[in-house]
């Protein structure tokens, strides 16, 4: 399934992983928000935790078609995501993301905190105010 990616942390424009993974490999990047999630601080990167009431700010990234297969593999590796692995820090899921430009809901791949990580963050994590990671180091 070819979908855009919703990025909210180190893959956002201006953040450390954007140029390493996305520069020159996208058709477009546009601001959006993931509803039903709260952004939590992590060691060096954020985690989107699915829970009612919150929203996470980020970008919808549409990959160039010829770059898509390799990019999907590289982003899974970056996020240490292996389908079905209970040791995952993130899970790659399809969620609707609302585009800021027109309010349309778009299905996108999103890396959200894996269940065990999400439980720890809900219990004793630090939420990021406004759901916005940009500029935090």
TrEMBL record:
One Pfam family recorded for the sequence: GGACT
Xref: InterPro entries: AIG2-like_dom, GGCT-like, GGCT-like_sf
Domain spans labelled Gamma-glutamylcyclotransferase AIG2-like: 5-134
CDD domains: GGCT_like
Domain of life: Bacteria
Name of the molecule in the record: Gamma-glutamylcyclotransferase
Source organism of the structure: Streptomyces pilosus
């Amino acid at each position: 399934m070819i979908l855009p990616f919703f990025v909210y942390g180190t893959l956002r424009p201006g953040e450390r992983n954007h140029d390493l993974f996305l520069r020159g490999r996208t058709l477009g990047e546009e601001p959006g928000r993931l509803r039903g999630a709260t952004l939590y601080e992590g060691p060096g990167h954020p985690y989107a935790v699915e829970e009612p009431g919150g929203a996470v700010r980020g970008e919808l990234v549409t990959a160039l078609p010829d770059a898509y297969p390799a990019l999907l593999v590289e982003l899974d590796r970056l996020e240490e995501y292996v389908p079905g692995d209970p040791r995952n820090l993130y899970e790659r899921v399809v969620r609707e993301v609302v585009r800021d430009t027109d309010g349309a809901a778009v299905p996108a791949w999103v890396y959200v905190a894996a269940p065990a990580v999400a439980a720890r963050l809900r219990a004793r994590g630090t939420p990021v105010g406004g759901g916005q990671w940009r500029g935090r180091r």
